[in-house]
Write a structure and sequence with these properties.
CATH topology of the largest domain: hpI Integrase, Chain A
Structural class: mainly alpha
Order of helices and strands: EEEHHHHHHHHHEEEHHHHHHH
Shape: elongated
Largest sheet: 3 strands, antiparallel
CATH superfamily of the largest domain: Intergrase catalytic core
CATH class of the largest domain: Mainly Alpha
Radius of gyration: 30 Å
Number of strands: 6
Strand order of the largest sheet: 1-2-3
Oligomer: single chain
Distance between the termini: 93 Å
Number of domains: 3
Length: 359
């Protein structure tokens, strides 16, 4: 279980017990080091080292502890993301029957989990998703360290997968925007139009209340609520003419701007399903996420010459580097714009005899 080594004439005892490494200085006499090691091994076998009962909890118990922590400290969207990772890791642990205690998790375990998610469970999830899940596990294990359940993080120093298969952002062309709105139902049209004209995140949309909308000043305020905080802080979004006409005619069914038929807060997952249905009717390919409308808002502003700091402010980006990703999506637009220029001489003049100018 353990071993003895010497350094500069001093003997040390080194052993690992249920994931915790114990190193003790024994002195200059090897026999005393052997006795110390023997004593520690006996105490470990009898569970008498004092830290084992408290530290080595089951993986299931740790994840339940973290779930409660997340519920108290994270936004709803973050809670949902961590909950998905917890469920995936629990399913992995249940299949790996030899792994059930926190002390049994190491770098090899994380590598097995990556392989499991990549192909072993049949899901074939992509590299960027696996990297996100591993980062989430790293956060969970740091929580375990702070809670005194473990000493080292098994994800620390872990190399992440290359993300050549990263999800590409979906942008709608002007024609696709028109078709989307044209084929939207009476209830869905105001929602899609609001997303296209404001670039709001879906959580911002469903938490938008009439008290956040000032039609007189033509301003939408993205601001915190008792049970919800905006991802990147509070901001204001101007209401353009198109959105003003939509909001002015939108019936009020309660506190929330967008509700279901019962006047309850709109469900973002249901809105996403309606977006997919509408895109199929409108024959718009590869439109499956509400976030695509937010991407479209930013890219359309940049294509129309709006400066990056202004787009950053409207989008609520904390870093302008995030905003700059949209500048790479306008290549076709720029090519089309340049093609409209035609500064050249006619063929007749271009091939005429060269004129010699005096020096």
């Amino acid at each position: 279980m353990g071993n003895i080594y010497s350094r500069n004439g001093i003997f040390y005892v080194d052993l690992r017990v249920q994931g915790r490494r114990i190193r003790k200085k024994a002195g200059k006499v090897k026999k005393l080091a052997e006795l110390m090691l023997n004593d520690l091994e006996i105490k470990a076998e009898r569970n008498q080292l004092g830290f084992l009962d408290r530290k080595d909890i089951s993986i299931k118990d740790l994840l339940e502890e973290f779930r409660r922590y997340s519920q108290a400290n994270h936004r709803l969207a973050s809670q949902a993301r961590y909950r998905a990772v917890v469920n995936n890791f629990l399913r992995f642990v249940q299949e790996e029957t030899q792994i059930n205690r926190l002390s049994q998790i190491n770098g090899d375990t994380i590598e097995k989990y990556r392989m499991y998610r990549r192909s072993g469970d049949g899901s074939g999830v992509k590299a960027y998703t696996i990297n996100f899940e591993v980062r989430a596990l790293r956060t969970i294990f740091y929580f375990a360290i702070r809670s005194n359940f473990m000493e080292t993080n098994p994800v620390k120093g872990f190399k992440f997968l290359k993300t050549d298969d990263s999800k590409k952002r979906r942008f709608l062309s002007d024609q696709e925007c028109v078709r989307l709105l044209r084929y939207a139902s009476k209830d869905d049209y105001p929602i899609f139009a609001t997303l296209l004209n404001t670039g709001m995140r879906r959580a911002e949309l469903v938490h938008l209340e009439w008290s956040d909308v000032d039609l007189r000043k033509r301003i939408i305020k993205i601001q915190k609520k008792p049970n919800w905080l905006p991802k990147s802080g509070e901001r204001e979004i101007p209401i353009n003419d198109a959105l003003y006409e939509i909001l002015k005619r939108l019936p009020s069914r309660g506190d929330f701007v967008f509700t279901n038929e019962k006047g309850q807060q709109a469900d973002p997952d249901l809105i996403r399903l309606k977006l997919i249905e509408t895109s199929k009717r409108a024959q718009i390919e590869n439109l499956t996420e509400l976030h695509a409308l937010r991407h479209t808002f930013a890219s359309q502003l940049i294509e129309r010459g709006v400066d990056l700091p202004t787009v950053q402010k409207l989008m609520g980006h904390t870093n302008i580097q995030t905003t700059m990703i949209y500048t790479h999506q306008t290549t076709d637009h720029l090519q089309n714009a340049i093609s409209k220029l035609n500064f050249r001489l006619s063929d007749k003049h271009a091939f005429a005899e060269t004129v010699t100018h005096p020096r």
